[in-house]
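Sample log: Nitrate/nitrite sensing protein domain-containing protein.
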Amino acid sequence: MSSAILLPIGVCIVLMLLAFLRIWQTTRKTQQQRRTGVALLLTLIELIKLSQQHRGMHSGLLNGQISLRPKLKELEQQIDSLQQGLYQQRHSLNQRTYAYLQSAITRWQKIMQQPAMEASVSFQQHSGLIARLLDSLWDIADDFSITTHSNPKIQQQTQILVRTLPVLSESIGQIRALTMQVANSERCTPDKKLQLLFTLSKIDADIQLISSDTSTDALEKVTIFTCDIRQSIEQDTLSQQNPDVVFQRATENIDRIFQLITQGLTALQQRL
């Protein structure tokens, strides 16, 4: 075979190898990018969880539960540490995600600067902070190419882990804070009743969105808890509930949801 024939064949082989190498490098870079994104999501999920706990306990403190102060201080240190960690990675975030995080940090600083605010104001400030963190979750998942995975099952799983379950946990967190306000004040005002019923309806809707392969045990326990709260509202006995018991039951359900999210994201990280 003449060199005139061999040369073009050789060139084609080299070009094919270079193309395969480029595809391999791009795939590997995308996988690493996605795994980095999941690691950020896990940090953000922990920050949301602690912020929700702080909201509930801060409400209790403002309503006279002085014994919560040491635990609140501990939570505040943990939240500050997580925020600093995320801030140090700000250069890996897009402009919109960074704006969400910056807004959340600013709201947190306002809460720390006004320790004697009214319970209703504390609830609003915390909820606004958590809303910004929830917005950041989906943005990070999208920015790190997790939502655009070629596998439809991974896309669906990401939707549940990054959007539906975190929103569900936040709704339960709001129920926890509101019921503690009612139990501590020993009265359920019409506006609190309306807020509670609206949030309970959101929980019902979110549970319907979650696929059947998600842990039914955790969701069944959430449903039992919300049914009990709804019944207490209808029977006008919510104000007679023990605040510590209400907080504990809500926290157990929130922890179950966060466990589903953490386990799901960790498993997803291995599949990317």
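Observation: The chain is about 85% helix and 0% strand.
Observation: The longest helix spans residues 3-62.
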